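WARN retry 2 of 3 for item q-0093 after timeout on previous attempt; input resubmitted unchanged.
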Amino acid sequence: MDPDVFPNSIEYWGPNGMVFFRNVQVRWTPWQDGDSRFAVALERPGASADQGEYAGRIELAEVKGRFPCPTCRPSSATRRLGPRPGGGILRQMKWDDMNDDEFDLTGDATGWGINLSTNLKFGERKHVFRGQVAFGEGVQNYWNDAPVDVGIRNNFSNPVTPIVGEALPILGIVAFLDLNLSDKWTSTVGYSLVDIDNSDGQTDSAFKKGQYALANVMYYPVKGVMLGPEIQWASARTSGTASRPTTSGSSSRPSTTSVYRSEASNEPTQDGECRPAAARRGSGGPSSRDACGAGADAGRDPGRPRRGLREVQGHPRGQERRLHPGPRQGRLEYLRHRPRDTDGKVYTAGDIKSEVSIQSISKVFTMALVMEESGVDAIAGNMGVDATGQVFNSIVAVEQYKGNEMNAMVNPGAITATSMVKGASRDEIWKKILATYSDFAGRSLSVNQEVFKSRPTPTSATRPSRC
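OK item q-0093 returned
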C-alpha cells in the first residue's frame, strides 16, 4: 500500500480503488537491496467468500477457512515523492469441507496482485498528482472499499464437487490532483474506480463496479485553521444476469468543514499532553487518521516526555552552547521534546512554539535528497558511511581521510553531499534543497539569515561550510 495516494480531502474513508489495508502478520525479509525488498509473511486470515445463489445451504454450513494463510509479498520501498517502483502480493487461500455427506467442497484459490503508484510534483507551487493502478485476483480484502475475494463458480460436470471457489479479478484506479493555489488556498479534484469480474455462481445483486469522485476548495486563513466546502459523489452497480438486468445507483454529498489543528499552529502544551498529529496538506490523509487519545489507553505514559525534559535541563554535566546569535539559540528554556509513537500519537513537553534553526539536522535531509536522486550507492561510493572518530567539524578528520570524507553527518561529508545535488545552477540547487527541507517539515521554511551570517570562523579552512 502507498498512503501518499490519499488525497487532501475532508472525507475520512478515502478513494474506494486505493489499496489501503494490511493484515496483522509475522513477516520475514530475507533480501533487501536499496529501494527493493522481498518479504514472506504468515498473516491473519483476511479472505472472504460469497456463497452466492447457494447461501444458506446446509452443504456450505461447515466449509471452513484454513489457518494460517501464507502470503508472499514481494514489494519495493516507496520513495517520498516521484514514481514508485511498485509492489506485489501472492497468497494461497484454502478451505475445508467438514461435512460428512456425498459432496467434497474442499478447495483452494490463488490470490495475486500488483500495485503501481506515483506522486508527481509539477509547477512552481508544487501541485501534486496522486495516482495508483492496482489489479489482481482474490485480493479484494486489501482494497479500501471492495467486497469479497472468492466467488462460487458452477461445476455441474462433477457430481462430487458441483461448485468450486474462484478468485475474483479486480481492478482499482486512483487519480487525484492536489492544487496548491496559494499560501492560503488549495483545491483537490479526483476520481477512483473499483471493477470486479463476477463469477457465474454469484447472484444478480452481487457488487460489480463502484465509482467515487470528489472536489473541494480549502482556505487556510491562519496557521492551524482550515475551512471550506467539499462535494463527494459515488455510484455502485450490480452484476446482473440474463434474466435480471444490472441495477445501479448513485448519490452525492456536499459538506463544509472548519478544522483547528493545535499542533499545526505550534501551540505549546503543558505536562506532556497528547495532541493529534496534524496531517500536512496533501500528505496523504485527513488528520482524523492520526488522532490520539489521552495516551493511557495505549499503555503509554504521556507524562514521560515532561519528566525526561526536566532531567536533561537539570543534568549537572549539561551547559548552554551559544555558538550563534539570536535570542533563542542554545537557551535551555527553549528546549523541547516531541516524540511520536508508531500509532501516530505525539507527546510534547517544553516550548514548541518558538522557532530555532535546525543546524546540522539538515544534513540528514540533504543526504536523503542525494539518495533519492542518485541512489544509496552514491553516498557509500563518494564519502562512505563510517564514523570518523572526531568531532563533527574536525579539520584533522579531513586530513586523516584524504579523498574520503567518511560520512554525510560530519561537515566535510555534508559539503560533499550538498555538491552532489543535481541542478543547472546554484539557485536551482538551493531552491531544491530548501524545498526538500520544507517537504519534510510539512510547511514552508526559510533561511535564518542572522545565524547564516554568523557562520564564518577564524579558521579559513572551515569557511566553505557557509555554502
